[in-house]
Write a structure and sequence with these properties.
The protein is of the alpha/beta class. The chain folds into three domains: 303 residues, Alpha-Beta Barrel (TIM Barrel); 205 residues, Glycoside hydrolase family 3 C-terminal domain (Rossmann fold), CATH 3.40.50.1700; 121 residues, Sandwich (Immunoglobulin-like), CATH 2.60.40. It contains 21 helices and 23 strands.
C-alpha cells in the first residue's frame, strides 16, 4: 500500500502536524501560510519555499533533464510513459533537493512541492498556455494526469517522493490578457462534463497532494475563494484531503481585478474561509488582522496549517534521513545518460506523422547526396523546450541531430530561412533577407527539410517577458511571419519536402496539407529533441503519436475565444471537418485491428468489455494506439467520446489481443444540473486506431469497427 492510500499513516501524520501547530503563536501561523515560509527555530522547523515547478522536468533550479512538453506527452497516448517520465522527474528532483539541503540552499524552486501537472482542458488552440496541458479531451487528460501524479509522488508506504499539484482549478484556458479580471461563465453541464473530470480523477484516483486555484472567476466566484469549487466540490464531493494553494497573485485579484472585495484583509479572509490554505503572493500576511477583526477564526488557520505541515511530514522534511529511501538518491542521477536516453526515446514516441505521401519518409540516407535544412526552428534551442523548463547541459537542435546522424556521408546545407515571426533576420535589412539563400539551398539539395512552427515566445503565459504577442495567446492559427512564404518558395523548386512542425498547439497548415508530401508534428520535444526528430526522419524510430488536440482549418471554425460554452469546441462538439482530427496519426508500418467484439449487447452495471486483436502487418516495428469511443444516441449529446485506449508496440508480424473494459460510467453523461446520469436508450461503441469520423477515415484509408449496445434502464 502506498502512502496516498495508507489512511492510518495519513492520520498519524495529521496528528503530528496538529501537535506542531498547537505550539505556534498566531503570528507564526500566519507566516506559514505564505509560500516563502520562514523558519520557526524554537520548534525546529526549517524555512521552506513552496513554489517549485516540474511541468516536464525540474524547472528553474539549474541543470535538469528537459523532457518533452506536456502536450507532447499527451500525444504519446501512453499512460505507462507518463508515469515513467514523472518518476524520472521526481528522481532528479530528489537528487537535487538532497544536495540543496546539504548546502543549506532553501531558495525558491529548491523544494519538493511541485506545481504540476496542468490538467486544464485545451478548449481553444489560441490559448497560449495550452502546451502546458494534456490536450482537449477530459478522458485522455484524466488518464495521463493520474499517472503523472503517481509518477511524481511515488509508491512508498511511508513517504511521498514529491508532492504533485493539479492546476489551475478550474475552468481556466484563456484569454490570458484578462485572466486577472475574467469571469468564466459556464453551465453546470459543461463544468462537470468537461472542466472538472481531470481534477476529479487526480484527486480520487491519483490522490494528488495539492490543488492550485485559478486566477479567473467561475460564475462570479474567484476560484481561489470559491465556496463552490473549494468546499462543495473539492472537499465535500470528492473528499480531498491535501492542501490548496492560490495561483501567484490571484488573491490580490479579488479586490484589484474581480472587485468582489474591497481590501486585502477581506480578500485574504474570503480565500482562507473558503478553503485556500497557502498563498503564492503576500495577501495572507493580512490574516493576523483578519483574525483580530473577527473575519477569520483561528481554528480555520490551524486547519490550513495542518494541511500544509502534513504535506511536509509526508515528504520527510520533518524527519531525519534514516527511514526515508528518497534521501539516498544521489545527485549523479541528474542529467545522467539514462535520463537523456529517456528524453530521446520519449520525444520520438510523442511525434505525430500527419502526412506521408508516397512514403517519402523515412528518408534513405544512401540516396542522399545533398540535404537542405531550412527554417527558423531548424537550429533553435528555444523551439525544443516550451515553457516552465529546466536547464539542460546539452541541447541538440533538429539541424544538429540531422548532422549527427548523417555524419560526413551527406552534404547538409542550412538556412534560417526567416525570422520566427518578424519580416527580417537582420534589423538593417530590407526584409525577407534570407530568401536568396533559401533558393540557393533548394537548388543544390536532393531533399529539403523545412523546420517551421512556434516557440514559447509566441505562445505562453500572460506577463511572460519574452512574449511577442504580449498576452501569450495566438492571434490566429497561421504560420507566423514569413514562414508560409518561405515554405511556398521551398516547394516551388519541385524537390521532395518534409515539413517538421515544432509547436505546442495546432496550426492551420492547409496549404502544406495540399502541397507538401510529408508533415511531422514534433511539438516541443525537449533537449534531446533534435536527435529524436532525426531518428524519425531517417527511420531509426517509427512515429506512433496521435493528436491530443484537433487541428482546425481556420479560426472561422472556432467560437469566440472568451465563450466558455463547449458548443462547437473540440472534437467532442465540433460540427465541421477538421484538418487533422483528434486521435489521428500515421506510421511507417501498417496495422490491422481484427477479431473485434464486445462482451454483450447490453451495458449494465458491469459495463462492457471490448476485445480486439492488433497486428503489425508491415515490415517495420511500430506502435499503434487502440482507441475506443462511445456515442450516446440521444438528441443534444456530444459526438463520440474517447472512453478507452491502449498503446501497443509491435514487431513486424506480431499480433496481440487487447481487452479494454468500459465501466458503466462510460455510458453516462451529466445533465443540465450537473448530475451524472446513465439513461435508458442505446449507444454506439467504436473501436479502431482513430476516431470514428469521416476525415480520419479519409486520411488513413481505414474504418473503425462499430457496435450498438442498449442501456435497458436508468442507472444511478
Amino acid at each position: 500500500m502506498e502512502l496516498a492510500e495508507n489512511h492510518e499513516k495519513n492520520a498519524e501524520y495529521r496528528a503530528r502536524a496538529a501537535a506542531c501547530v498547537a505550539r505556534m503563536t498566531l503570528e507564526e501561523k500566519v507566516e506559514q501560510t505564505l509560500y516563502q515560509a520562514p523558519a520557526v527555530e524554537r520548534l525546529g522547523i526549517k524555512a521552506y519555499n513552496w513554489w517549485n515547478e516540474a511541468l516536464h522536468g525540474v524547472a528553474r533550479a539549474g541543470v535538469a533533464t528537459v523532457f518533452p512538453q506536456a502536450i507532447a506527452l499527451a500525444a504519446a497516448f501512453d499512460e505507462e510513459l507518463a508515469e515513467e517520465l514523472a518518476a524520472a522527474i521526481s528522481t532528479e528532483a530528489r537528487g537535487k533537493f538532497n544536495v540543496q539541503q546539504k548546502f543549506s540552499d532553501l531558495d525558491i524552486y529548491k523544494g519538493l512541492t511541485f506545481w504540476s501537472p496542468n490538467v486544464n482542458i485545451f478548449r481553444d488552440p489560441r490559448w497560449g498556455r495550452g502546451h502546458e496541458t494534456f490536450g482537449e479531451d477530459p478522458y485522455l487528460t484524466s488518464r495521463i494526469g493520474v499517472r503523472f501524479v503517481k509518477g511524481l509522488q511515488g509508491h512508498d508506504e511511508n513517504y511521498l517522493k514529491a508532492a504533485a499539484c493539479a492546476k489551475h482549478f478550474a475552468v481556466h484556458s484563456g484569454p490570458e490578457d484578462v485572466r486577472h479580471s475574467f469571469d468564466a461563465v459556464v453551465s453546470k453541464q459543461d463544468l462537470y462534463e468537461t472542466y472538472l473530470p481531470a481534477f476529479r480523477a487526480c484527486v480520487r484516483e491519483g490522490r494528488v497532494e495539492a490543488v492550485m486555484g485559478a486566477y479567473n472567476c467561475v460564475n462570479g466566484q474567484p476560484c481561489c475563494g470559491s465556496s463552490l469549487l473549494l468546499r462543495e466540490i473539492l472537499r465535500d464531493e470528492w473528499g480531498f484531503e491535501g492542501h490548496v494553494v492560490s495561483d501567484c497573485g490571484a488573491i490580490q485579484d479579488f479586490h484589484e481585478g474581480h472587485h468582489v472585495t474591497d481590501t486585502p484583509v477581506e480578500s485574504a479572509a474570503l480565500a482562507i474561509n473558503n478553503g485556500c490554505d497557502l498563498n503564492c503572493g503576500n495577501q495572507f500576511r493580512f490574516l493576523k488582522q483578519a483574525v483580530a477583526e473577527g473575519l477569520v477564526e483561528e481554528k480555520r488557520l490551524d486547519e490550513a496549517l495542518v494541511n500544509l505541515f502534513t504535506t511536509r511530514i509526508k515528504l520527510g522534511t520533518f524527519d531525519g534521513p534514516a527511514d526515508n529511501p528518497f534521501d539516498r538518491i544521489p545527485y549523479s542521477v541528474v542529467d545522467s545518460k539514462p535520463m537523456r536516453e529517456l528524453n530521446r526515446e520519449a520525444a520520438a514516441k510523442c511525434a505525430v506523422l500527419l502526412k506521408n505521401e508516397d512514403r517519402l519518409l523515412p528518408l534513405d540516407r544512401g540516396r542522399l547526396k545533398t540535404l537542405g535544412v531550412i527554417g527558423p526552428n531548424a537550429n533553435s534551442r528555444k523551439a525544443l523546450v516550451g515553457n516552465y523548463e529546466g536547464t539542460a547541459s546539452r541541447y541538440v537542435t533538429v539541424l544538429e541531430g540531422i548532422q549527427e546522424i548523417l555524419g560526413d556521408e551527406t552534404r547538409i546545407l542550412y538556412s534560417e530561412g526567416c525570422h520566427l515571426c518578424h519580416d527580417r533576420t537582420s534589423a538593417l535589412s530590407r526584409g525577407n533577407d534570407r530568401l536568396s539563400e533559401v533558393k540557393a539551398v533548394c537548388e543544390e539539395s536532393d531533399v529539403v527539410i523545412a523546420c517551421m512552427g512556434l516557440d514559447a515566445s509566441l505562445e505562453g503565459e500572460e506577463g511572460d517577458a519574452s512574449n511577442e504577442f504580449a498576452s501569450g495567446d495566438k492571434p490566429n492559427l497561421e504560420l507566423p511571419g514569413l514562414q508560409q512564404e518561405i515554405l511556398e518558395t521551398i516547394s516551388s523548386f519541385g524537390k521532395p519536402v518534409v515539413l517538421v512542425l515544432l509547436s505546442g498547439s495546432a496550426l492551420a497548415v492547409n496549404w502544406a496539407d495540399e502541397h507538401v508530401p510529408a508533415i511531422l508534428q514534433a511539438w516541443y520535444p525537449g533537449a534531446e529533441g533534435g536527435r529524436a526528430v532525426a531518428d524519425l526522419l531517417f527511420g531509426k524510430r517509427n512515429p506512433g503519436g496521435k493528436l491530443p488536440v484537433t487541428f482546425y482549418r481556420s479560426t472561422e471554425q472556432l467560437p469566440d475565444f472568451a465563450d466558455y460554452s463547449m458548443k462547437g469546441r473540440t472534437y467532442r462538439y465540433m460540427e465541421g471537418e477538421a484538418l487533422y482530427p483528434f486521435g489521428y496519426g500515421l506510421s511507417y508500418t501498417t496495422f490491422s485491428i481484427d477479431k473485434v467484439r464486445v462482451s454483450g449487447e447490453e451495458a449494465g452495471l458491469s459495463g462492457i468489455a471490448v476485445t480486439a486483436s492488433v497486428k503489425n502487418t508491415g515490415v517495420m516495428a511500430g506502435a499503434e494506439t487502440l482507441q475506443v469511443y462511445v456515442k450516446i444516441c440521444r438528441e443534444g449529446t456530444p459526438n463520440a467520446q474517447l472512453k478507452g485506449f491502449r498503446k501497443l508496440s509491435l514487431e513486424p508480424g506480431e499480433e496481440r489481443e487487447v481487452v479494454i473494459q468500459l465501466p458503466p460510467e462510460a455510458f453516462g453523461l451529466y445533465d443540465e444540473e450537473g448530475k451524472f446520469r446513465i439513461r435508458k436508450g442505446t449507444a454506439w461503441i467504436y473501436v479502431g486506431g482513430q476516431a470514428p469520423d469521416s476525415r480520419s477515415e479519409k486520411l488513413t484509408g481505414r474504418r473503425v469497427k462499430s457496435f450498438t449496445v442498449t442501456i435497458a434502464e436508468d442507472l444511478a
